[in-house]
Amino acid sequence: MRKNSIKNTRINAEVQKSLANLIRGEIKDPRIAPMTCVTDVEVAPDLKTCKVYISVLGDETARSQTLEGLRNAEGFMRKHLASTLNLRNTPTLTFISDTSTEYGMAMSAKIDEVMAPIHEREEE
């Protein structure tokens, strides 16, 4: 199975949906921020490992605490994935902080800042 095959794309989507529901509804760890989002999931073609990209709305301490809480709940999440998804192997989860949302918001603010004088001149 190639990395970008249709089967792997479907597995990625199912794992992402299952993890998002699990984080939102079943994990009760107070370290996990309420605004935590699973932005992407990459399951290896051999189904042994899985990279889970997590976006957390908040400061750096909230992000690090959320990642720590998720790492501690990895066993529970793997057990849940094994029971809900019919996969040959249940992948080990690696949580990675995804800062692309914050980067995009910062770039958008910079673009707005640069474009403000141009819009003011057009309005005159």
Structure description:
By secondary structure, this protein is α+β, with helices and mostly antiparallel strands. It has 4 helices and 3 strands; from the N terminus they run αββααβα. Strands 1-2-3 form a 3-stranded mixed beta sheet, covered by helices on one side. Strand 1 and strand 2 form a beta hairpin. Helix 1 crosses helix 3. The longest helix is centred in the last third of the chain and has 24 residues. It is elongated, with a radius of gyration of 19 Å. It starts with 5 loop residues before the first helix and ends with a helix. The mean pLDDT is 88.
Low-confidence stretches: none
Number of structural domains: 1
Element order, helices and strands?
A: HEEHHEH
User: Quick one: how many beta strands?
Assistant: 3
Oligomerization state: single chain
Shape summary: elongated
Structural class: alpha+beta
* CATH-defined fold name: GMP Synthetase, Chain A, domain 3
CATH A-level architecture? 2-Layer Sandwich
CATH hierarchy class name: Alpha Beta
**Tally of separate helices:** 4
pLDDT averaged residue by residue: 88
Strand order of the largest sheet: 1-2-3
End-to-end C-alpha gap: 60 Å
The profile of the biggest β sheet is: 3 strands, mixed
Q: Tell me the strand percentage band.
A: 15-25%
Kindly state the percentage of residues in helix.
40-55%
Q: What would CATH call the homologous superfamily?
A: K homology (KH) domain
